Amino acid sequence: MAHATVYVGFTVPQLLRGASRIFPTHPALVVLRHSAFCYCTTNGTIKSKRKMDHLERTANNFRQEVISQAKVCGITNESETVKRLRLAIANKDFTFKAGQWVDFFIPGVSVVGGFSICSSPGLLEQEGILELAVKHTVHPPAHWIHTECTLDSEVALRVGGDFFFDPQPGDSPVKLVLIAGGVGINPLFSILLHIADLHGYQEGKGNGYKMGTVKLYYSAKNTSELLFKKNILGLMNAFPGKITCRFHVTQQSSQICKELQPHVTEGRISEKDLEKHVSNDTLWYICGPPPMIESISKLLSNIGVPRNCVFFEKWW
């Protein structure tokens, strides 16, 4: 997929002219700079730069032209600091690939948010629903979601990103290792759900999808900060041997519940954990804070994983 090279100035309302209605916002000028660091990177050296806003960071990423109005139809607490939004999408032409993110336009908020999608493309196709899980920060879009967003709130969305898994019928099966840190689980959970959907299609319809196994390594400070853990355990039970997961916790102080205990390791993801998965038909997807990605990338290099088999996305 080609990267979008953009250098253009526009106001937020201009962006929304492709949607079904124009949201009133402060006309803050937003410039997409050609020199912005693309935070979804493959086969490259990672270099952290100054913190930029979402539009700057993603200026060179692919973006769809379609902008769709969306209405909040569900809000739940995924953890003490993360809210999960369920959004009904108005535009039938709105699509995404598992792993991509959305530009998030909020009426009256001049800053454009950027959030990875945590639901599967199948949910959008079947029910017209998309989900986001957003951690509370002082960043205006995240702050709005945690303090002002309510059922029936209206926003606008546009899909972008070059970090995705989108196998086609007839493709040779590949094994996947997904490595997540903190809220970086979002795009990888979308990929995991998509793989589960495709396993279901493969078993039920025999429509040409050939799926390999997937292993998820998911690290957080403690089990209370592991997002989607019940869903992940459910997927493991539904697809034994095909979908497996190892949770890692680095600062656990309370007792781990019995349901999670068999799947939890106290300590960071190590070279020993990863080396058992090295093969010619394995792809590696990593998402998390930049230091975590840099550390895991070095581990993969040390155990001989080819750089063209590693895909990562920095998330600030």
From TrEMBL:
List, for all copies, the residue spans of the domain called FAD-binding FR-type: 65-192
Q: Which SUPFAM superfamilies match?
A: Ferredoxin reductase-like, C-terminal NADP-linked domain (SSF52343), Riboflavin synthase domain-like (SSF63380)
CDD domains to which the protein is assigned, alphabetical: FNR_like (cd00322)
* Origin superkingdom: Eukaryota
Q: Does the keyword NAD apply?
A: yes
- Entry GO MF terms: oxidoreductase activity
InterPro entries tied to this protein: FAD-bd_FR_type, FNR_nucleotide-bd, Oxidoreductase_NAD-binding, OxRdtase_FAD/NAD-bd, Riboflavin_synthase-like_b-brl
One cellular-component annotation, GO: mitochondrion
Q: Which UniProt keywords apply?
A: NAD, Oxidoreductase
Pfam families annotated for this entry? NAD_binding_1
Query: Which PANTHER family does the protein's record reference?
Result: OXIDOREDUCTASE NAD-BINDING DOMAIN-CONTAINING PROTEIN 1
* Protein name, UniProt field: Oxidoreductase NAD-binding domain-containing protein 1
